[in-house]
Amino acid sequence: MSFESAMARLGGTSLSVGSVEACSIAKGETLADTIRVVSGYADAIVIRHPKEGAARLAAEFATVPVINAGDGAGQHPSQTLLDLYTIRQSMPIDGIDIALIGDLRYGRTAHSLAFALSLYNARLHTISPKGLELPVTLATELAERGMEIIEHDDISDVISDVDVLYMTRIQRERFPDSASYFNVASNYRITPELLTRAKKHLIVLHPLPRVDEIDPRVDDSPHARYFEQSRNGVPVRMAMLMQVLQ
Amino acid sequence: MTNTESAENEGLLVRRIRNGTVIDHIDGGEALNVVKILGITGTTQEALSIATNVPSRDMGRKDIVKLTNRELSKEEVDRIALISPRATINIIRNFKVCEKKGVEIPELIEGLVRCPNPGCISNTSEPIRSKFRVTPKGLHCSYCDWVIARDITSHII
């Protein structure tokens, strides 16, 4: 929706394909064909797709620029740009301590952000349920790029040390039953009580939508930046669209 | 002297070929995978001879594959490097070695290996071939960034 808002604010229009169920893909059309057809209808394509690598495939078949708006459990680069922008509104990015919390295995926003932060000499603290840790290949690559990655069991272990808390949603379908989900999810929750031990300038980010991982009472805290982060999605995506359309 | 003894004395386990390709110095035990990489099945036309675990001065044990009436292309030869980087290729014409070449690890391999990531777009019905960059860490999927670090042969399509 934020890409549509960005396009509208730039004075353009957008054609939304909508969900996979609602378009030709549901009739058996390949993504390659859909992209070739849509290339004739639009000046740029923004694609969100459940399969990893879908945007790269789209770029191979498109005759117009393609922006990856999220590919499965892969990457989410446009979210990363607005995440970096939101951090920079509060502090210099270089050398920050950031905690990535939640589903880091399938959380594409965390993958892209971690990768981008490796350019900024940031120190990464990861807190995730067993089995949902950062993918080994990504962690290895980050380490090779010189990034320090420190794993923790509990948010309270790092709350006093970090500049940014980046929360991600833990999805129920990753667990065998609701009871195990609630049991795990309750350990990955930000509350006002926890934030009393935080640095004064700490900011809390979340790509949204959130479920239970941030207590609504945190919304009024000076640390909360996630709605501002969401708003930042529009100007950042306007800039991305301008970049590819010019 | 029996025929078998004669062959052993000459160092030949399989007969010389008139025309075709001899792939020598294959790592011991990898010959069948080499054949798989080349897409040779029981239903293709080539006459095929395989010698496995042959004693070798340099390698300890090696495998040899002989293909009659087929000269391997550069792309095919380089695919072999993925599983047997020391292999040498001899192109035979009229019983003589006309060309001898080593294998080079390619920078990009297409359509040879299946991405192990079930969520990868290359594992769907899209009209694409799998694509991997060959890196020091292994094979890097050009679509989803998955890395195959070991046991490449089990992912060969």
Structural commentary:
The complex is a heterodimer of chains A (246) and B (157). Chain A has 246 residues and is an alpha/beta fold. Chain A folds into two domains: 2-72, Rossmann fold (3-Layer(aba) Sandwich), CATH 3.40.50; 77-230, Aspartate/ornithine carbamoyltransferase (Rossmann fold). Helix content of chain A is 37%, strand content 13%. Chain A has nine helices and seven strands, in the order ααβαβαβαβαββααβα. Chain A has helices at residues 2-9, 31-39, 54-61, 77-90, 108-117, 136-144, 178-185, 192-195, 226-245; strands spanning 45-49, 66-71, 97-101, 123-127, 148-152, 164-167, 203-205. In chain A, strand 1 (45-49), helix 3 and strand 2 (66-71) form a beta-alpha-beta unit. In chain A, helix 1 packs across helix 9 (226-245), helix 2 (31-39) crosses helix 3 (54-61) and helix 4 (77-90) crosses helix 5. The radius of gyration of chain A is 19 Å and the shape is globular. The two termini of chain A are 22 Å apart. The model of chain A has no long low-confidence stretch (mean pLDDT 93). Chain B has 157 residues and is of the alpha+beta class. Chain B has two domains: 3-102, Alpha-Beta Plaits; 108-155, SH3 type barrels. Chain B is elongated, with a radius of gyration of 17 Å. Chain B starts with a helix and ends in a 9-residue tail after the last strand. The A-B interface holds A 30-32, 49-54, 56-57, 60, 71-74, 137, 140 and B 117, 119-122, 124-128, 137, 141-147.
